[in-house]
Amino acid sequence: MQTALEELSKEEVIAAFRRLEQEKSEKKGKNFRLLHRCIMMFKAWLRGTHHSVSLLQAYINEYTWRFNRHSMKEGIFENLIR
């Protein structure tokens, strides 16, 4: 099974990149607002809570887990039942 990107011909991909090159962005720096906010929140959380570089990967894993579950409105009990 091919992905949508693999189904494109080489000419279609080149044409798409040319259109992107010609297109001027009027929103410089605003296209990645959510990404910048996530990075800023991660850095603030890391500075405020953790200080050991040797455990950095564990801290990143914990932040990712918390970020992925920040929109869950159910309580812990409902999540454990599932």
Structure description:
Residues 22-68 form the ISXO2-like transposase domain. InterPro entries: Tnp_ISXO2-like (IPR024445). This is ISXO2-like transposase domain-containing protein. The protein has 82 residues and is an all-alpha fold. It has a domain at 29-82. The chain is built from five helices and no strands. The chain has helices at residues 4-7, 10-22, 33-49, 56-68, 76-81. The longest helix is centred in the middle third of the chain and has 17 residues, at 33-49. The radius of gyration is 20 Å and the shape is elongated. The model has no long low-confidence stretch (mean pLDDT 74).
- Give the C-alpha Rg: 20 Å
Helix content range = 55-70%
Question: Roughly what is the average pLDDT, rounded to an integer?
Answer: 74
Element string (H = helix, E = strand): HHHHH
What is the percentage of strand-forming residues?
A: under 5%
DSSP E strands, number:
0
Low-confidence stretches: none
Secondary-structure content class: mainly alpha
The profile of the biggest β sheet is:
none
Q: What's the shape? A: elongated
SS field, number of helical segments: 5
Q: How far from one another are the termini?
A: 32 Å
